[in-house]
Task: structure prediction
Amino acid sequence: MRHWSFVAITAVVAFGVVGCSRSTGGRAAMAPLAISQAARARAEPNTLSREHSVVIDVPETELEQRFNRVTARCTADAAHHCTVLQSDLSTGDTPAGHIRLRIDPDAVEGLINFASSQGRLEHRSTSVEDLAEVIQDTQSRLEMLTNYRKQLLELQAKAGTNIDAAVKVASELATVQGNLERATAEAAYQNKRTTSDVVMIDLVVAQRTAYWRPIREALRDFLGNMSNGMSQAITAIAYIVPWLFVVVPGLYLIRLFWRRRGR
Result:
């Protein structure tokens, strides 16, 4: 009995060891695959540029205050690199506010939620542009210009006392340097477009609220308009009175002439 018990225990332990080794081997085989996928995801750059647009209905009396709240919210959000690119506020006949800003992608939802809390969200849209080809062209141009500048620097070093060659190389080198700086600026702008999102926020006043605006303005300007009307009437009378001294006698003479002729 002891012999068979020893055999059974040995078999169980052996199967357990084999099972653990297979499980560990499976996980070990899967680990490099997961790591390679994660590394490939990190290696692939983002080439998408996103622009978000929202329209928010706000009360006319609160337009300026809530416009300032949204711009202040962006200005204070330095952690997400929020930058106001454009801001327009109109309080005339068509009151409205327009804010265009750039912010990190992970902070877009929080900003839009804050802006929407200032009124009622009427419309939202998102447009995406793939800059893969443009980025690739810019990188190829950068590499070409960098290699060309390297060759020119080598030629400049070999020019020695040949003044004509040195002048031509220096002129070409200046042109290449200018093109290289412009390409570098384009690459930086493209990188900014793919690493941050543009958000356009329009604050509008509903038509039902603006319906009474002309009536309120007319009542507010009633005395001023009446004063202008009276001044114009007085001016017209001032122009007419001198003509009465000519027209009235003329009409009297004409009437007198027709009476005599009728007799």
Summary: Residues 1-35, 37-41 have pLDDT under 50 and may be disordered. The longest helix spans residues 2-43.
